[in-house]
Amino acid sequence: MKKITSLFIAFIALLFYSNVNAQCIGTYQYPTTDVTASTAPGVIQISDCNFYGDYSVLTAVATGETYEFTIDPGGFITIVDNADGVTVLSSGVSPLTWVATVANIQVHWHADGACGTDAACHITTMECTTCPGPTNDDCANAIALACDDVVAFDTTGATLDEAVTCGTPSWSNNVWYTYTDSGSPETVTLSTCNDADYDTKLYVYTGDCGSLVCLANNDDFTGCAGFTSQLEFVTDGSGTTVYRIAVSGYSVDDGSFTSAGPGNLTITCAPAATPPSNDDCSGANGAEALTLGLTATGDNTNATSAVSNPTCDPFGVISDVWYSFVATASQAVDITTTVNGTADEAQFAVYDACGGTELLCSAGGVTEHLEPLVDGNTYYIQVWNDGATSRLIEGTFDIIVVESTLSTNEVEDVEDFSYYPNPVNDVLTLNAQNN
């Protein structure tokens, strides 16, 4: 009889413990507004500061799908039907997995099965582990766009694919769209400007999925809030070219931070203006050859966006034009750009070849000295604006490249060095035993 009594007491205690576990109900809603549940793969944060004893209301849960809830650094979770605030649907220690049976729920956060509370911040998250990703998650399943479309997207549950080098390399989850050339050249504008909930990036490619070629990109367009993006590109007018568009976000290379979320992508089109004759470094609209010592007036009106950004302007949408010069035996030049019209800046970078190594990058408006150069080699200068205007049309500027001399800041210990006369009148004579 004593054994039976002991077993009965243990059974009652077990029932009481189970009942406590199932009834950890909080009294304060936080966040104070309802949170829309995730319906795509990927972890989303519910709050960065839930106390043990709080509860959160989640709406639009995908019934039939499996969700995982967590509270850091670990605690006890109770899921309650929000329709009555009483019916317990599931409970257990974090992380808690639950197959959704209703669309609107309360998730109650506690320290343990005894419903412990505190006043410290805890990060709470949810993840739909069985929800399908966006239909346009892959390049091959891109959604076709038409001019003046405004499409809603969400990269939260997307994966990163087709990571083709195109501008700044640190990008994250992406979704895909296409735009097909209309048959006449157009300037196409893509924008998430002020219309996304996270740090977006935009990319445009030509070519087929698996062998894409970068055409244009932008990260953090000037004038857009929240690190959102905008870019322009010009179609070729063939009527057949497909432009592949990726909407992505910023990501730290070590994986410590990744931005993703919802937003709207807007596409607008306008007849393309004729680009400058030196719009590109090479090809039909290749670099304009400069004569050393003579000023040339340039104009980047209607210039197309650069494929890649120079190091001194890594995030701008830059409308660039190109120049070239041939180095002389002096092996040194001085380069100056000056705005002379509507342009507000004339930044420039110098390369040893088209697509080659950057040798110099300048904010413009000053004279930059460049050495050593190789006698007879051709060098290329990229000149652009800062992308501050909505249409990226900045206007005219002057550029001059002047033959200079190799220089040294030290003339100490030069054997038998002398110069005369002093003061000098027209001619200064320098003598030394060594060059």
What are the key terms here?
mainly beta; 39% strand; disordered N terminus
How many beta-strand elements? 30
User: What structural category do the secondary elements indicate?
Assistant: mainly beta
* Ends apart, CA distance between termini: 114 Å
Percentage beta strand: 35-45%
List the helices and strands and how they pair.
Blueprint: H1 2-22, E1 28-29, E2 35-36, E3 43-50, E4 54-59, E5 66-71, E6 76-81, E7 88-93, E8 96-99, E9 105-110, E10 122-128, E11 143-144, E12 150-154, E13 175-180, E14 186-191, E15 200-206, E16 213-219, E17 230-234, E18 242-249, E19 262-271, E20 288-289, E21 296-299, E22 320-326, E23 333-339, E24 347-351, E25 358-362, E26 367-370, E27 378-384, E28 396-403, E29 418-425, E30 427-431
Parallel strand pairs: 1-4, 2-4, 11-13, 20-22
Antiparallel strand pairs: 3-10, 4-9, 5-8, 5-10, 6-7, 6-9, 12-19, 13-18, 14-17, 14-19, 15-16, 15-18, 21-28, 22-27, 23-26, 23-28, 24-25, 24-27, 29-30
Structure notes:
The chain is mainly beta. Helix content is 5%, strand content 39%. It has one helix spanning 2-22, and strands at 28-29, 35-36, 43-50, 54-59, 66-71, 76-81, 88-93, 96-99, 105-110, 122-128, 143-144, 150-154, 175-180, 186-191, 200-206, 213-219, 230-234, 242-249, 262-271, 288-289, 296-299, 320-326, 333-339, 347-351, 358-362, 367-370, 378-384, 396-403, 418-425, 427-431. It is elongated. Residues 1-21 and 388-392 have low confidence and may be disordered.
